[in-house]
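User: Fold this; C-alpha cells only.

Assistant: Input:
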Amino acid sequence: MISPKIDIIIPTFKSKDITLLALKSFLKFNDYFNFKYIVVENSNDESYKNDVLSLSDDITWIQNPISEVGSFANANGLHKGLDSSSGDFVFLCHNDVMAVNNDWMKFLFDKIDKGGYSVVGFRRDPGRINAIHASGILAERKLSKSLSLYPVGNGSYMDVTDSLTKYCVDNGLNHYSCRNTFNNT
C-alpha cells in the first residue's frame, strides 16, 4: 500500500502544553503514514513556536492573530491550515486529540480506502444534524477545501466542520464515526 499524504491540521489558542502533547502522540504513533503537521496559532502568542517546530521538520507553524473566538476561531484556523495543505487527505482536529496506538489513522483511513466512506471521524454530535464532530475528522483535502467549515444558523444550527457531514448526506455519500464513550456509554 502506498501511503497517502495526510496533513494533520491543528488550530490552537495559547495552549502550549496540550498542543505539544498532541503532536508528540501523533509523532510517536505514525507507523503507517508520513504526516505533515500544520499548527495554526489563533493569536499573537509565539512563545512556544520553537518548541513546536523543534519536534519535527514536518511541522508548519502558522501565526493567525484573529479576533474571532470559539467555533468561528476554530473554523478560521482550519481554513488557514487548508490553505497551506498539500496532502491528498486532511485530518482536522482539536489540539487535545491524542493518538494512543499505531493503528489509529490506519483504522480511519481504511474506512475511506476500503470501506467506501467519504468522511470519517471520532464521534458524532447527536444534536444539530448528527454531524461527525470536529475533534477528529478525516476527509479528502479537495472536499474539505470546497466547503465552508464555519458554523451556520439557518434554522438548524451547524457547528464547525458540520458541512462535511451535510455534504455527505445531501449527496448520498457514506460517512462514519467510531464507537466512543460520548455517544455510547
